[in-house]
Amino acid sequence: MNRFDLTGKRAFITGAGSGLGQAIAIALAQAGADIASFDLPGASNQADTSASIAACGRQMLVLAGDVTDPVSIETAFDRAEQELGEIDIAVNSAGIANVGAAEVMPHAQFLRMMDINLNGLFWSCQVEGRRMLARGRGSILNMASICGSTAIPGLEQAHYDATKAAVIRLTKSLAAEWAGRGVRVNCLSPGFMATPMNSRPEVAENVRIFAAMTPMKRMGQPHEVGGPAVFLSSEAASYCTGVDLNIDGGFLSI
Ligand SMILES: NC(=O)c1ccc[n+]([C@@H]2O[C@H](COP(=O)([O-])OP(=O)(O)OC[C@H]3O[C@@H](n4cnc5c(N)ncnc54)[C@H](O)[C@@H]3O)[C@@H](O)[C@H]2O)c1
Asked: What sign has the CA pseudo-torsion 149, 233, 28, 34?
């Protein structure tokens, strides 16, 4: 039996319109899952994601909403279950990044970061977890970052790093809370990956420094989160919960 096989499973993925969420949507579909893709209205690459998923013979449902609004997540999740069937797998990849010196950071910039990257991820876990706990089965995968465990030299993003540290802790606490009720909760911590988030001119020099400091001497490609996401979402990881899996070319090993 192939315990990595996701045939017949259905996955709800936030932030699936771009970057890592999109790459995970495609990887889960290649492993056999149908996909409900949740992103902001008009998110750029939903059509590309859809075409790639159709090419592997799976269905994709496009859902528009905002993770800062719990009602919009709940409405979308219900629609996904009506149209695709019960959701077995959730991946929470919606997020933003920006920089700013901590001592002068406007309150609004700090609060928006918390609202999307931390609060929005918690609302997502809450909606997904509630449905999965009622059925006694499910897997939730949260997108953290190596920046939740370490600061990148020269990168002024204390607010972003704080959200990712909180995502790692939240993941482990939810894993402990729900482990006896059939729901696994894990997270991924990528290093710098080649997504639209890292094509911002403000991080170009940091990306170059990161690649030079990384034992593998390069940044990651979006598809390189796919295998770890399939593993943690599958029966192959049936005894894994509360895991923070680094996908960083060895960066946190040094
Ligand atoms: N790219 C990297 O190097 C990297 C590294 C570590 C962690 N991450 C994390 O991975 C996740 C995805 O990053 P990415 O590189 O794919 O970025 P991206 O900008 O390519 O994609 C992020 C997606 O999230 C969506 N989104 C943003 N705010 C939203 C909201 N309020 N509601 C719903 N959707 C929203 C965007 O529309 C976009 O489609 C983020 O949580 C990010 O912090 C990225």
From this structure: negative
The pLDDT profile of the chain, 254 residues, written as one tens digit per residue, is 699 999 999 999 999 999 999 999 999 999 999 999 999 998 767 888 889 999 999 999 999 999 999 999 999 999 999 999 999 999 999 999 999 999 999 999 999 999 999 999 999 999 999 999 999 999 999 999 999 999 998 999 999 999 999 999 999 999 999 999 999 999 999 999 999 899 889 999 989 999 999 999 999 999 999 999 999 999 999 999 999 999 999 999 99
Residue 200 tokens read as: 């911002």
Query: What CATH number is given for 10-246 in this structure?
Result: 3.40.50.720
Q: Is 145 in the pocket of ligand 1 (CB under 6 A)?
A: yes
Q: Which residues pair with 34 in a beta bridge?
A: 10
pTM value is 0.98
User: What ligand 1 atom has the least distance to the C-alpha of 92?
Assistant: 41
* Cβ–Cβ under 8 Å, residues 140 and 90: yes
Q: To 10 degrees, the CA torsion angle through 200, 222, 157, 249?
A: -120
**DSSP 8-state assignment for residue 182:** T
- The answer, yes or no, to whether any atom of ligand 1 lies below 6 A from the CB of 244, is no
DSSP state letters, 108-158: HHHHHHIIIIIIHHHHHHHHHHHHHHHHT-EEEEEE--GGGT-PPTT---H
> Torsion angle of alpha carbons 53, 56, 57, 62, nearest 10°?
0
